[in-house]
Design a protein that fits this description.
This protein is about 35% helix and about 20% strand. By secondary structure, it is an alpha/beta fold. It has a ten-stranded mixed β-sheet, sandwiched between helices. The longest helix is centred in the last third of the chain and has 31 residues. The radius of gyration is 18 Å and the shape is globular. The protein starts with a strand and ends with a helix.
């Protein structure tokens, strides 16, 4: 069903990791309008791959739509190889940017380097370093929106709060926005630990105030004025959770039914909590609460299609 309806304490980048030091080290054409960038982040002292779909007219100004991958950072499937974004955005005057990497990071700035995941300063990279480089390289208009799946469905809210005014619209597909209550902390720990990271290096022990500072549910009032789209299924198998829905891929279907179903049941609960919170605050938002569907790419492609009119309107002058 469809219904209308700068956090304190965040870790900051090192004083020497300035946006001015970030740079594009390489640009490679990979298919038609698609290119891949090697972007050096001073904040992380590392090079990150960033895939870009050029606007229909690459020489004319265009807004930028950022799409974030999920908990595995795109290594097990990403927007470019699991959806139809190339054909969907063909003819649209918008630059689409998909950062690769960030597995288990929540795309946030970690307070300490992690022995396994290394230096994670994704909030600085995505809000301060990458946007000016993209705008300069691809004639950005200064109008941005951002959307993400699963883990990144939390991150898009955190990023919008960390950089007020940077994004005109945010989209969360099968995300769980509440992070600092006991259930939220269990979920965040599960996501990070599955990639062998330690959330103590991210936001400290469970009692640390940084957890609450990075909980968009608690700071939802600061989202007023931002276009918001949130979607989720219920975990009940739907039309894309059949052998025909996965085009005969039995392994994929097994994953969706055994793992994608319970995951989506959790995000359904989280999404309804966020809906109620935004209603209490009288903050307009669009919620697409599907009666069926698992935690899987077929539904996220549909979510992207359904939410694009909201983002297109937000990005239009």
């Amino acid at each position: 069903m469809m219904a209308a309806c700068g956090l304190p304490g965040r870790a900051a980048a090192s004083p020497t990791a300035t946006a001015d030091a970030a740079r594009i080290d390489g640009v490679r054409g990979i298919a038609d309008r698609a290119v891949e960038l090697d972007v050096y982040s001073a904040a992380m002292n590392a090079v990150t791959r960033v895939r870009v779909l050029r606007a229909a007219d690459p020489d004319a100004p265009a807004p930028v739509f950022y799409l974030l991958n999920g908990a595995n950072g795109g290594s097990d499937g990403n927007w470019t190889d699991r959806t139809d974004i190339a054909s969907f955005f063909a003819g649209k005057q918008v630059t689409v940017v998909i950062p690769m990497g960030g597995a288990g990071s929540y795309f946030t700035d970690w307070r300490a380097d992690d022995p396994v995941l290394g230096r994670q300063r994704w909030s600085t990279f995505l809000t301060r370093e990458l946007p000016p480089l993209v705008d300069a390289e691809f004639h950005g208009t200064g109008a941005n929106a951002i959307a993400g799946i699963s883990m990144a469905g939390t991150s898009v809210f955190q990023l919008a709060l960390a950089a007020p005014g940077l994004y005109r619209g945010i989209g969360s597909y099968s995300g769980c926005v509440r992070t600092s209550d006991p259930q939220g902390q269990v979920l965040v720990n599960a996501v990070v630990n599955a990639r062998l990271g330690n959330t103590v290096n991210m936001w400290g022990p469970p009692t640390d105030p940084t957890w609450r500072a990075n909980d968009p549910y608690l700071h939802a009032a600061e989202l007023r004025g931002t276009a918001i789209y949130v979607s989720t299924g219920t975990g009940v198998p739907g039309p894309l959770d059949t052998i025909d829905g996965v085009r005969g891929d039995l392994l994929q279907l097994t994953y969706q039914l055994l793992f994608g179903a319970p995951l989506e049941a959790v995000t359904d609960m989280c999404t309804r909590q966020l809906r109620d919170r935004l209603r209490e605050l009288n903050i307009p938002a669009t919620f697409d609460l599907r009666p069926t569907g698992t935690h899987s790419w077929g539904y996220w492609q549909q979510d992207l299609h359904n939410s694009w009119p909201l983002f297109e309107a937000a990005l239009t002058p």
